[in-house]
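Fold Annotation — chain and its backbone
Encoding — discrete vocabulary of local shapes
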Amino acid sequence: MSSYQVTLSPTKTHFDVREDETILEAALRSGIPLPYQCAQGECGTCRAKILNGDWDLLEGLPAARYLNDGETLLCSSKPKSDLEIEYEPIVESSFHVNCQVSSVQTVTDEILIVRLAPQSNDFNFEAGQYLNLLVGEAKIPLSIASGPENERLIELHIGISPGNAASDSMVATLQLNASVDIELAFGQATLTRSTERPMLLIAGGTGFAPMKSIIESSLSVQRDRDIHLFWGARSPELLYTETLVKRWDKYVPTFSYTPVISEPATGWNGATGFVHEEAIRQYPDLSEFDVFLSGSFDMVAAVAPKLLAANLPRAQLFSDILDIIEGKS
């Protein structure tokens, strides 16, 4: 079986890619923890710049439309020659924590809520940040859904793709009472980086996870700050923790909630369409808000320009995925 050599620059680490492997699969097989999440061309986490060589990238991938010249998605690319790839090694976090899986809740066929019990208190994080779940040599980024004020449990909301090898491996790792390792914390879209302006939180699907962390922490430390959550999903069933959100909406005077359904069935009386369009409809001028945006790579890339066009200064838009798209992280 033929193979090509991939060299990572500037470290000059190299590995071989067999003809039946993607670049990502070969790197992980060789013990090189290149970053990834979905492993199917949707999230953009494995985006990298090719410095030398030729390769093939699968067509029709959602994240591919945001690649710059010379960039590719390692999860969906195969070499046609030896390659040199620009790669900065993952910087180890200050906090490497062993946890026990305390609970696993299957809320839909595509969403899990997992709670981890840290086995030490020697860590901290900020509301809105994410952690890396360590699965073999892989580091899988997952948003933290609990606030930092809760030191006993770390909550994760995880979108899964049954039948996808990377997703199935992650699910197999997160079994009840299993011992897992995480490192934290990462990301700049945090509550502490924002101001005292009113907050608009715009979430799609499991992008609600970091919003939940931000809401819980804000209600603990900034109870007078106005928060309006816009949560979008295809159907009402995918608003998977809406009971909690409706409780906030009922009992917290500074909190408002608007669910938005993109594919409504008969009987839905709420907002419909795209979640950001509803937010802009209610707030045509965003200049006086801090806006947090979270969802799929594709969603964030499409929505961010619309928010900026509604007079939102870039410094008041918080999104880790947008930072990745812009090359800031």
Notes: Residues 208-221 form the longest helix (14 residues). The first strand starts at residue 3 and ends at 9.
